[in-house]
Automatic annotation (TrEMBL):
InterPro entries: DHS-like_NAD/FAD-binding_dom (IPR029035), THDP-binding (IPR029061), Thiamin_PyroP_enz_cen_dom (IPR012000), Thiamin_PyroP_enz_TPP-bd_dom (IPR012001), TPP_enz (IPR045229), TPP_enzyme_TPP-bd (IPR011766). Residues 3-121 form the Thiamine pyrophosphate enzyme N-terminal TPP-binding domain. CDD domains: TPP_enzymes (cd00568), TPP_PYR_POX_like (cd07035). Residues 195-323 form the Thiamine pyrophosphate enzyme central domain. Keywords: Thiamine pyrophosphate, Transferase. The keyword Transferase applies. This is Acetolactate synthase-1/2/3 large subunit. GO terms for biological process: isoleucine biosynthetic process; L-valine biosynthetic process. The keyword Ubl conjugation does not apply. One of its GO terms (molecular function) is thiamine pyrophosphate binding. Its EC number is 2.2.1.6. It comes from Crossiella cryophila. It comes from the Bacteria. Belongs to the TPP enzyme family.
Length: 533
């Protein structure tokens, strides 16, 4: 069929099931955006105000849905601006496809100081992608898209980039589109010997613990995780990015903070879809005699500084299903109630030490429906959430990436809402990071993307956030206490439109002890017994 490279790109994306993409229009990718406009809405393009936001929208879209998130940006500075979002997607193992413009084919690598020319753009992208390809002819475009999608659906999902020079996008040729058929990629299948070695340890364990990272949800393995946990009677500890792998109100569910004590008391730990590293880069601390099993789709996460006794190289869903079958039913052991009560009491003391943040987080949980998506940001509130906000359904808590990027929660939330338009989506922001991407309020308003931004303002004498919301035509609310926050968020969620809730808090104590261990003791407090008791 006769078509341009840009038309072939759009047609193959549609064939692969892509229906939405974010981006920033640019002359050098003009043939692609023109082809998108001619689809009559079959492929919807959401123009962000900045490339970082566009990349984060693709990240949020993919994490909230499990589908591929797509981002289109211009070359040079456009690619560099998108790297922050791409780094978060890489750190969170998210299937994001970056479509990047390039300089004209005959000038690639010429080093002439052309507009939008970036020295070794391909090398820059290669550092944050599992696959990066450059189109030389329009006939290559469908196969490049097919290869990219297959890579995004195979092994550990991480970003993929395609570079598209403007002449390749504009040129016409006889181009054959490819039928993806029922191809769903190549998940890593478990080895029978590795499964049996892991199952043997779990069958003999008296105090087993399952440790779930984001990889469990990325593989849609939450049902398999729960089945194995219930057959073993094993507590499930979620990593900082893992809440949602098991319903947070399940008796076997324990937050990351409580996991510190459980991991040390366990005799066997199975870590699934997790790096199993502290934020310091050290391995999660386990008991001196604890046996460690690592199950991961990426063998890189088996290496030092970790010291596993058994490794299972497999997709989380396939590996957990095989383990559950091999282990069988070993109910009846369980953990001593006294031990579990002691762990919950310690956890409550640590959370109470956070001061006011615990009340704010509890208010958010009351206001946001069970299927609502909460997007986290690093900060005094965000660091409390993984241990104090029970996540009730998979893919409803999107944590900040280990890359440490700030200011991305709102744009990530925009993507999540596009992927899940029938679910409430709330983004947590601090007063500082809110100034990094405030322009995306205009994106939310333009496309009526119903995200609620909750800004915890430690410097009420600074930015007028309600004035900012008004300037962008967005509804604004102010909440001065947890009850008011609960009411404001609930009202904003029910609007179904973009909204901003300002929470003037004043300076809050650091909750750093919740995400990295400390040695200073905390005073005991009266606590309620946890769900195990």
């Amino acid at each position: 069929m006769r078509m341009t490279g840009g038309q072939a790109l759009v047609a193959q994306l549609l064939a692969e099931g892509v229906r939405d993409l974010a981006g920033v229009p640019h002359d050098l990718v003009g043939p692609a955006t023109e082809a998108i406009a001619r689809t009559g809405g079959a492929l919807r393009f959401y123009a962000a105000r900045h490339e970082q936001a566009a990349a984060r929208m693709a990240d949020g879209y993919a994490r909230a849905s499990g589908r591929i998130g797509v981002c289109l940006v211009g070359p040079g500075a456009g690619v560099l601006d998108a790297l922050s979002g791409l780094a978060s997607a890489h750190s969170r193992s998210t299937p994001v496809l970056l479509l990047a413009g390039q300089t004209p084919s005959h000038l690639l690598g010429a080093g002439l100081g052309l507009p939008h020319e970036l020295p070794d753009q391909s090398g820059v992208l290669a550092a944050l992608t599992t696959h990066c390809a450059l189109a030389r002819r329009p006939e290559q475009v469908p196969a490049m898209v097919r290869t990219a999608v297959r890579a995004l659906r195979s092994g550990r999902p991480r970003p993929v980039a395609l570079e598209l020079p403007p002449d390749v996008l504009a040129a016409e040729a006889d181009i054959r589109l490819l039928d993806p058929g029922l191809d769903t990629g190549c998940p890593v299948r478990p080895d029978a010997g590795e499964i049996e070695a892991a199952a043997k340890l779990l069958r003999g364990a008296r105090r087993p613990v399952l440790y779930a990272g984001w990889g469990v949800q990325a593989a849609d393995a939450d049902a398999e995780l729960l089945a194995l946990a219930e057959s073993l009677g094993a507590p499930v500890v979620t990593s900082l990015g893992g809440p949602g792998a098991i319903p947070g109100d399940h008796p076997l569910a324990f937050p990351h903070l409580a996991g510190r004590q459980l991991l040390r008391a366990a005799d066997v730990v199975l870590a699934v879809g997790a790096r199993f590293l502290e934020t310091t880069g050290e391995p999660n601390r386990i008991g001196a005699h604890t046996r460690l099993v690592l199950l991961n789709a990426d063998e890189h996460d088996f290496g030092p500084p970790r010291e596993p006794d058994v490794t299972v190289h497999a997709d989380a869903r396939l590996g957990l299903a095989a383990l559950a079958e091999a282990v069988g039913q070993v109910r009846g052991r369980g953990w001593p109630v006294s031990t579990v009560d002691r762990i919950w009491a310690w956890t409550a003391r640590e959370l109470t030490a956070c001061g006011p943040q615990l009340g704010w987080v509890s208010a958010l949980r009351k206001a946001i429906p069970a299927d609502g998506v909460l997007v986290d940001e690093v900060g005094p509130i965000g660091c409390v959430v993984p241990s104090a906000y029970p996540v009730l359904e998979p893919r409803t808590f999107l944590a900040a990436g280990q890359d440490g990027g700030l200011g991305g929660a709102f744009a990530t939330a925009l993507g999540a809402r596009l992927a899940q338009p029938d679910r409430p989506v709330v983004a947590l922001l601090g007063d500082g990071v809110s100034a990094w991407n405030p322009q995306e309020l205009a994106t939310a308003k333009r496309y009526r993307i119903g995200v609620v931004a909750v800004v915890f303002n430690e410097n009420p004498a600074g930015v007028d956030f309600l004035g900012l919301a008004k300037a962008f035509g967005v509804r604004g609310f102010r909440a001065s206490d947890p009850d008011a926050l609960c009411a404001a968020v609930a009202q904003a969620v029910n609007l179904g439109e973009p909204a901003l809730v300002e929470v003037p808090t004043g300076p809050m104590p650091s909750p750093g002890h919740l995400v990295r261990e400390r040695r200073s003791p905390r005073p005991a407090v009266s606590v309620r017994r946890g769900p195990f008791g």
